[in-house]
Specification:
The protein is of the alpha/beta class and 248 residues long. It is 38% helix and 15% strand. It folds into two domains: 152 residues, Alpha/beta knot (3-Layer(aba) Sandwich); 77 residues, tRNA(m1g37)methyltransferase, domain 2 (Trp Operon Repressor, Chain A, Orthogonal Bundle), CATH 1.10.1270.20. The strands form three sheets. A five-stranded parallel sheet has the order 2-1-6-5-7, sandwiched between helices. A two-stranded antiparallel sheet has the order 3-4. The protein has a two-stranded antiparallel sheet with strand order 8-9. Helix 4 crosses helix 6 and helix 8 crosses helix 9. It is elongated, with a radius of gyration of 23 Å. 25% of the residues are buried.
């Protein structure tokens, strides 16, 4: 898959693409990332890409024309109809299902806005989808783009050391959409705190029941709507319901 990023700050992506386990995805082109700057398509000595907003007000607005020229160059090189995605507070929230869909796609053109935003006429003409990470505002779309790329990259075959690792992530259907359980490692005793006896028992069924109960417990406490979703989908068994009933 290929992701073309339109960003005023391509240098921000260098350490991201070269660090951590997900770099395997980028180095091996499992996730082919290409960076484009609108400044390269702007006119004048100063390569201006922004201007004051019509109607007044604070901040600056990214101009439509440099963005449109940049997108045209990407289209010419890609020779496909990849969707154009803008990271924006008005977009739909990115979730696990969305990440899984992108991980199986051919990629997209990701637009990273800056300042007060980008000219709405570019959005109306070219943007197919807007995505948000949540109900807060970032200085630009670069961090959001990195979040999407990281989430997609780790789902690619051969990227994680353990192929089944992501199957135990929070929100994964393999966990019935629940949050993940706590994790422990050596030493067994640390600053007067013991690792749970169930995890040290060597009894597989006991370990799995402990983990399932902790997932139910944490999800019911922190994200009760996920419990209701799992229940509505028939993903909770009698033992799950019995455990949840004890906590009420």
């Amino acid at each position: 898959m290929r992701f073309d990023l339109i960003t005023l700050f391509p240098e921000l992506f260098a350490p991201f693409l070269e660090s951590g386990v997900t770099r395997r995805a980028y180095e091996g082109k499992l996730v082919d990332v290409r960076l484009w700057s609108p400044r390269d398509f702007a006119e004048g000595n100063y390569r201006r890409v922004d201007d004051r907003p019509f109607g007044g007000g604070p901040g600056m607005v990214m101009m439509a024309e440099p963005l449109a020229r940049c997108l045209a160059a990407i289209r010419s090189e890609r020779q496909d109809s990849a969707p154009v995605v803008l990271f924006s507070p008005v977009g739909q929230k990115l979730d696990h299902a969305g990440v899984e869909a992108w991980s199986a796609s051919a990629g997209a053109v990701l637009v990273c806005g800056r300042y007060e935003g980008i000219d709405q006429r570019f959005i109306d003409a070219h943007v197919d989808l807007q995505i948000s990470l949540g109900d807060f505002v970032l200085s630009g779309g670069e961090i959001a783009a990195m979040a999407l790329l990281d989430a997609v990259a780790r789902l690619q075959p051969g990227v994680l050391n353990d192929e089944g690792s992501h199957q135990l992530d929070s929100f994964n259907p393999a966990l019935d959409g629940l949050l993940d359980c706590p994790h422990y490692t050596r030493p067994e005793q640390w600053q007067g705190r013991s690792a749970p006896a169930e995890l040290l028992s060597g009894h597989h069924a006991q370990v799995e029941r402990w983990r399932r109960d902790r997932r139910l417990e944490i999800t019911a406490s922190q994200r009760p709507e996920l419990i209701e979703a799992a229940r509505a989908a028939g993903r909770l068994n009698k033992a799950d319901e019995a455990f949840l009933a004890k906590g009420q």
